[in-house]
Amino acid sequence: MSDDRRNETQLLCDILGLETLVDEITANMVADASAAGAATPSAILGPFYRHDAPVLPNGSSIVRELTPAVTWYETAIADSALITGRVLSSASPTMPICNAVVDVWHTAPNGLYEQQDPDQPDMNLRGKFITDDEGRFSFYCLRPVAYPIPDDGPAGKFLTMLDRHPYRPGHIHFVVSAAEHRTLTTQIFDDRDEYIAKDSVFAVKDELIVSFVPREGDPNGKWLLEYDFVLDVVA
Hints:
Elements: H1 8-15, H2 18-33, H3 73-77, E1 80-89, E2 101-105, E3 126-130, E4 136-142, E5 147-148, H4 154-161, E6 167-168, E7 171-177, E8 184-190, E9 209-210, E10 213-214, E11 223-226, E12 229-231
Parallel strand pairs: 1-11, 1-12, 8-9
Antiparallel strand pairs: 1-4, 2-3, 2-7, 5-6, 7-8, 10-11
Helix pairs in contact: 1-4
């Protein structure tokens, strides 16, 4: 079942909780070895990351226009969100990191990442953003929705045998990197989601649950989320 668009082995590791377990062990080892303050918790990478997402200017959107527009496009645009925040160093809670790379991606409202879906343009809902002199980044995206992981292969059959559902709560993936700091791979989870307490891959952590708030006077975004990432200093 695995090919250049799908990693069934990694998916199986996810639903067994193996990737989350390894992530937790590694995170605890890093925390024990660090003399700095607490960094943002990590979370699993997942099987749909792409290394070559485009670098976009801060304040731009990772939502690419679909031609022809699919049925969910207009509804999705109406639920757009502005996400903004800073990348900070664990050496000091007020120390911004300029030129950090914030690599972001999430699924479309139909539950598919762009490389799974022939109706989505290449690199839809993906982008990289470089922090400014104050460590700030900003971009528009869609407010995430719950979706089922691909369950038409071995991983899905295994879930069925365990009498478990395939759904993940609405989330957005991030890989945040900066010189002299450990790269952070994580996710943030929308607190409105009904699957927040029963993630099929066990990746939700309390510190990564976020609340979007209504945004007024912005035609490009109905919601706002302000969230800072803290990176561990390399010892």
